[in-house]
From TrEMBL:
Thiamine diphosphate binds at residues 84, 125-127, 163-164, 194, 304, 386. The gene is dxs. This is 1-deoxy-D-xylulose-5-phosphate synthase. It holds the Pfam family Transketolase_C. Its cofactor is Mg(2+); thiamine diphosphate. Belongs to the transketolase family. DXPS subfamily. PROSITE patterns: TRANSKETOLASE_1. Pathway: Metabolic intermediate biosynthesis; 1-deoxy-D-xylulose 5-phosphate biosynthesis; 1-deoxy-D-xylulose 5-phosphate from D-glyceraldehyde 3-phosphate and pyruvate: step 1/1. Its EC number is 2.2.1.7. The keyword Chloroplast does not apply. It comes from the Bacteria. Mg(2+) binds at residues 162, 194. SMART domains: Transket_pyr.
Amino acid sequence: MPGLRAPTRGRYNLLDRVALPADLKNFSIDQLQTLADELRSETVDAVSSTGGHLGASLGVIELTVALHAVFDTPQDRLIWDVSHQAYPHKILTGRRDGIRTLRQPGGLSGFTQRAESPYDPFGAGHSSTSISAGLGMAVANKLRTKQDRHEPARNVVAVIGDGSISAGMAYEALNNAGGLKEGAERLIVILNDNEMSIAPPVGAMSNYLSRLMSSRRFMTLRDLAGNLASKLPSQLHRTAKKAEEYARGMLTGGTFFEEMGFYYIGPVDGHDLNQLVPILRNLKTQDERGPVLLHVVTRKGHGYDPAERAADKYHAVAKFDIATGIQKKTVSPVPTYTDVFARELERLAQEDPCVVAVTAAMPKSTGLQPMADRFPDRVFDVGIAEQHAVTFSAGMACEGMKPFCAIYSTFLQRAFDQVMHDVALQNLPVRFMVDRAGMVGADGATHAGSFDLNYLCCLPNMTVMAPADEAELAHMVATAYAHDSGPTAVRYPRGAGVGTPLPAKGEVLEIGRGRIVHTPQKPQGKQRVALLSLGTRLAEALKAAELLEAEGVAVTVADARFAKPIDQALIDRLASENDVLITLEEGAAGGFSSQVLQRLASTGGLDQVRFRPMNLPDAWIEHNTPAAQYEQAGLTAPHIAQTARKALGGGKA
């Protein structure tokens, strides 16, 4: 990046020679291994100063080097699924000098991003999209080459982890690719197996077989054998074909992918460049070979001792000391919202054996781990499969269980049809715990919880709550537990609460009833403003009230508590008793404010009060601190006060 220079330049002989992947083309395999060692050190050094997803990146160092050494990126398309593991890729593709701006305001994204580099052909932040996108690119290239003989044919490589390939979308793409007659000939799917035991141990024999099976000689012989077998009587033909498939399947574990229509190669040691480079070269030079799945086995955190020793392999880390691996985490005396949910859920599970919990591959991050430790048979991690998680929860609700389905807001989007059709339409009491609602900081737009109010509030039968502080969250968990007459959702933000003392246990709230938290001392004769907040903007609303009251404005502040059903009586009162009514929400336009507007429009309230909704803007807010993101969104106390002034006629237009 202009104006930046990596502080490690001069430390790494080979890495300093790499400006772009083309610089790797003449490196020997021994040099590539040295480069991989240097790249690993550079990645650790960079992430130690920024934090981020370290373990996955360390696990694909050798694979990243091999891919860029063999393929002609960006002409050949390289897609990283989720892209947690793309930091080494960014370093090798012209972004080394900016890598220490990773996830920082105005710096590099923590994920691949099309606008950031031509070497990022597809943006990713959610999982299991790479094969679908890669297949689309491969088919488009096939069509383009037919239309224009000067259009070059390209390889498309999709790298997907064993966790991501557990999601239904990945299998849909595999099924489509394997069944295509044309278009998938140059698609290579690399299964990065770093956790699951889905294959035999990697050894010399399996590596030898993988090299053999990827070679032109083996593919040609296999085609010849296939042609010969096709001349045999049908019974013998079928027997010969199955014998070949199952023989290779027993050695390599690839029968399943073969049945999907892919040519399977593996497993291969993903840290051995002597194996990776020849295999990738074989695959690159095969013409019209059909879709291939290359199975590589790697280890998260590989090559950095603190990561290898950690239970989570340093999947996501704060800034840390390189020598010791000790993370520089800020310890807050205030519990996080996730911690409060975890406490209340564990208490409810102890009291009621019908309480169960479901998550999609994130038991620790969503707060389910404490319950899982005490009641392991009642916590279900279904993998990266949000759609299944929702309908699985619905099935348990059918049988009288009380499921809490804990999924980040950004990931629950992926299961909207299941929330609608399998839960809301059938009015099943599934309790959705929607974590990371609103702005999320360094993960940026891909992970922001901006839209859950929109896609939940539009559904009949759905009850939607948002706590203003951690004590309110405790009450809302209790309310969701007690509500058996339909589905509920509680949305709450990432990070620590505001310091409100927690109750001994949550109390059940009246459904659809808000509360007034501040009233003016002497409202008579003054301009009157009502601030109706949903969620944790309540603290900013109270600050805005102080600013306005210092100017002689009478301000009422209310906590809506419920986005649906709304407190109609409270809205009617605020509209009738004030000159201006402002709603506040940490979500996109069309959520809570639309519910309020509908009420005002249907009752004539809009004739009585000047209504002003405040919500997230119609724009993507990139990575920054949450505080800076809300400042950018215009949802802080000064913005609220200025909105009130304009509505009263005293502010600048």
